Amino acid sequence: MSARDGGVFAVVVSFHPDLSVLGRLLDALQHQVSGIVVVDNGSPATFQEWLKSFHVSIPLRLLALGENRGIASAQNVGIDYAREQGAEFVILFDHDSNPAPDMVARLLAVVEAKRLEGVAVGGVGPRYLDERQDNPPPFIQVNGLRVERQPCCSDDSVVEVSYLIASGCLIPLRTLEVVGNMHEELFIDYVDIEWGLRAASKGFTSFGACGAKMAHDLGDEPIRFMGKSYPQHSPLRHYYHFRNAVWLYRRNWVPFNWKVADGWRLLLKYGFYTLFAKPRYRQWLMMSKGVWHGVTGKMGQLK
């Protein structure tokens, strides 16, 4: 089954994008999917005019939200639009991703293979590459109390994962009907993790396709420490990261071992970014505020 025959709609969330980078993504997608919807989180009118004049060979729709409503809300708007168009699959993208020419076809092939095995598929995602990082396999599985990266032995390897990053993730609409859309109160960060764990709690399994490749930048310029690169974000982004992680730990349907394993990583991040991410005081303050708001349930956009 091809991407076009299968009714794959790409949902691209934009927020003040670099137009050349977004244009590259749209060019790459027009040969892989049956339609594209760009959901914009409050970019200026000049961007909207640029997009309206951008030519691709497949349907391209802009849904401008007029303000930053967060990535979860924007994804849901795009998912609902794709559902209205009769799509069988959605594939989610940030505006700065760059998929390989055969990425969508490889993801679809995994879905079909797993369906033939009788597996209820949550999502299937690509192996992303960040030129600024060491690029270990991005596929995460929590085993016991350990967070383990699943190795890619070859391009034919398909690995089971606990969750996938949103950008490049292919999701059957029939899965979304059971699991539900993204949780909008998270606003940004842990949105994809929460959905992946929620899908797993309902009996769906997600997979990483090692042969499906995508270039994607994670965060700002990484921190170099002891010969390794570590992603970093702004203090505001760290606020959402820590708040949403703590909020998720309080959900009774999240496996206890996952809470312990991820919580230990969060504690290490708290110490690391307090010491090495600048501005240090602001980073510490926003992470601490995030923890407190996660405990007290203060969600949505930080005002």
In short:
With 303 residues, this protein is of the alpha/beta class.
Please indicate the count of domains.
Answer: 2
Mean pLDDT value: 92
Please state how the strands of the largest beta sheet are arranged side by side.
3-2-1-4-10
Task: Name the CATH homologous superfamily of the largest domain.
Answer: Spore Coat Polysaccharide Biosynthesis Protein SpsA, Chain A
Task: Write down the overall geometry.
Answer: globular
* CATH fold-type name of the largest domain: Spore Coat Polysaccharide Biosynthesis Protein SpsA, Chain A
The description of the largest β-sheet is: 5 strands, mixed
N-to-C SSE string, H for helix and E for strand: EHEHEHEEHEEEEEHHEEEHHH
Your description of this structure?
By secondary structure, the protein is α/β, with parallel strands linked by helices. It folds into two domains: 8-215, Spore Coat Polysaccharide Biosynthesis Protein SpsA, Chain A, CATH 3.90.550; 221-296, no CATH class. 39% of the residues lie in helices and 24% in strands. It contains nine helices and 13 strands. It has helices spanning 19-29, 45-52, 71-84, 103-116, 173-179, 191-201, 235-249, 256-276, 280-296, and strands at 8-14, 35-40, 60-64, 89-94, 98-99, 121-129, 140-143, 146-149, 158-161, 170-172, 205-215, 220-225, 228-232. The termini are far apart. The relative contact order is 0.13.
